[in-house]
Specification:
- The protein is an all-beta fold and 141 residues long.
- The protein has one domain: Immunoglobulin-like, CATH 2.60.40.
- The strands form three sheets. The protein has a four-stranded mixed β-sheet, with no helix packed on it. Strands 4-7-6 form a three-stranded antiparallel β-sheet, with no helix packed on it.
- It is elongated, with a radius of gyration of 15 Å.
- The N and C termini lie far apart (40 Å).
Length: 141
Amino acid sequence: MQDQSIFSRRAIRFFMAAIVGVGFLIPATAEAQRNYSRTATSGKAQWMDAYYGWNNDCSFKTIDVDVIDGPSHGRVSPKVETRKITQAQVGSTGGCLGKSTRAVAVYYTSKKGYRGTDRFRVRMKVGGQPPVIFSYSVSVR
């Protein structure tokens, strides 16, 4: 299947076709929260993170990424990329460690000339698992 993207005012969703499996496991509790600090150069796109999901055979799973709170001084741009599996947030990489799979990478770009701290939040859901909220604090120089 082809990648599909749906753009709306406050959310960007990427769906990647897949079969249900056990790749990226998320705790079966209320939405988990992860907090990260990043740095960026004013006005330049900076990689912030990449979200993965994979099956037992290392093929990709459905990944749903929503920007739930956008940055006040810039923009967040998701991009589907091919990346190697280096770790699992929860659970095990199984036999997939080092194998290539599709991922949704997130890039942050501040408004040109802005310097200071910006924040945004992303909700990531892998098919069949509860969502995880990723909060980013970006120091823009």
